[in-house]
Amino acid sequence: MRLWFVTLTANCYPNERVTFHHNGMMFTHATDADGNLDLSIPALSENAVIIVAFVNGEGALADIKVPSLEFYDRMVVQSKAKSQLHINAFEFGADYRDEGHVNVDSKRSVSDAAKGVGGFVTVSGDYEQGQALVAEVYTFPTSTSKTMGDVHVSVDANVTVANFCLRIEAQTLEVSRAGKMKVQDLTLQFYLVMQLVIFWCWET
């Protein structure tokens, strides 16, 4: 299992802001008019635990075993939505807009990773929520990829009126097949268009 499908039922909390915590990753969503929420979460550990917290401090906890995580590498960048930080992956020498250039706008999906075709990017978090926490996650099938070579991953920043000159705090999480997580804190201030905020290279 690569994505964890979660259903939240909270009849007492309709249209309520809620924050999810999973192995260092945090993101914000909201329940619907009936207090329900369905979403998929990229697992970051084999023994995955998720904590759901409402604004008033109430919440819940769930756990699941994810044995197939060892076949994949994952890269996460998380920050507030207004930071406009986005993952761009370049698989096997790809350049911008090539077939191997993967980001949130790509047509790649979990089925491509399952087939060993390549990676995909998912977004956890609702940009419509004020001051929302958002996480972009790039998943690559390192152990089952049909193509051998390097995968370069960068975090780019889109400078907008909303984030210009603001001090932005962000964090990256890297989960390897070995299950060990690398965490890096970022503090940024945008004055111009920024590309390649941080950079990784994986080998298959």
Description:
It is a single chain. The protein has 204 residues and is an all-beta fold. The protein has two domains: 3-65; 70-203, Lipoxygenase-1. 2% of the residues lie in helices and 52% in strands. It is built from one helix and 15 strands, in the order E-E-E-E-E-E-E-E-E-H-E-E-E-E-E-E. The protein has a five-stranded antiparallel β-sheet. Strand 5 (47-54) and strand 6 form a beta hairpin. Residues 193-197 have low confidence and may be disordered.
- Give the CATH class of the largest domain: Mainly Beta
Structural class: mainly beta
**3D shape:** globular
Largest sheet: 5 strands, antiparallel
CA-CA gap between termini: 20 Å
What do we call the CATH topology of the largest domain? Lipoxygenase-1
Work out the number of β strands.
Answer: 15
Provide the number of structural domains: 2
Q: Architecture of the largest domain in CATH? A: Sandwich
Number of helices: 1
**Which regions are unreliable across 5 or more consecutive residues at pLDDT < 50?**
193-197
Radius of gyration: 17 Å
| Helical amount | under 10%
Strand residue content:
over 45%
Widest sheet, order of strands: 10-11-7-13-14
